[in-house]
């Protein structure tokens, strides 16, 4: 069974992370929320602390609130899993600056694994993928992101879709433009991991 890994760094956008987590939990996805900040308690850009159940093994650990910490090694991530990157600043930059995480993202995508990012994360995180190679191979690639974070994507030949479109899926990449589309982002990931019917059922339960 495929699993979802959501990576949090200090300064993440609370709506983008938690709405995505909520949709996946509702859909029964095997989900792991992983802190890359060295502590289980990760502070959002809005100053709201969130407790991540796992610490990233490859990152130095600070004094944690838990005595018996659980760790996720990047080696635990399999080809059929999905790596998810919320936006928000400076959280997205903190994710992008985590070299072990970025190296794993590149190898995961290179092996055919799925990645998903929202808001600033397509521009700062996913732009580190060899997107220009994908564009040359397939003729085009479509993504979206928060306004102002397009340049790194366009530099690799990516067609950046109007942010009002919300969520864009192209190959093994799912992107969304911002917090207003976080629920749809989570539902799209759910549809890909499970099926469209479950995503529609979850949407109906939310009265959307």
Automatic annotation (TrEMBL):
Q: Under the cellular component aspect of Gene Ontology, which terms does the record hold?
A: cytoplasm
Kindly give the Gene3D superfamilies that the UniProt entry links to this protein.
3.40.50.880
Alphabetical list of InterPro entries matching this protein: Class_I_gatase-like (IPR029062), DJ-1/PfpI (IPR002818), Prot/Nucl_acid_deglycase (IPR050325)
Where is the DJ-1/PfpI domain positioned along the sequence?
3-191
Transmembrane portions of the chain: none
Q: Name one Pfam family in it.
A: DJ-1_PfpI
What's the protein called, per UniProt? Answer: DJ-1/PfpI family protein
Source organism (scientific name): Candidatus Merdivivens pullicola
């Amino acid at each position: 069974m495929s699993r979802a890994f959501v990576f949090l760094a200090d300064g993440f956008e609370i709506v983008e992370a938690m709405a995505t987590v909520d949709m996946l939990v509702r859909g029964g996805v095997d989900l792991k929320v992983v802190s890359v900040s060295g502590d289980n308690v990760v502070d959002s850009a809005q100053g709201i602390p969130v407790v991540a159940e796992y610490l990233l093994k490859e990152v130095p650990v600070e004094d944690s609130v838990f005595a018996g910490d659980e760790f996720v090694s990047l080696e635990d991530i399999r080809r059929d899993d999905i790596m998810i990157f919320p936006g928000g600043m400076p959280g997205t930059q903190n994710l992008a600056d985590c070299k072990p995480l970025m190296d794993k993202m590149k190898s995961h995508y290179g092996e055919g694994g799925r990645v998903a990012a929202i808001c600033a994360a397509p521009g700062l995180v996913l732009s580190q993928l060899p997107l220009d190679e994908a564009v040359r191979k397939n003729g085009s690639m479509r993504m979206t992101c928060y306004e102002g974070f397009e340049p790194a994507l366009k530099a690799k030949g990516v067609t950046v879709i109007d942010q009002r479109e919300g969520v864009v899926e192209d190959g093994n990449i799912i992107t969304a433009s911002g917090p207003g589309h976080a629920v749809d982002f989570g539902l799209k990931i759910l549809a890909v991991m499970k099926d469209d019917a479950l995503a529609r059922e979850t949407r109906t339960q939310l009265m959307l």
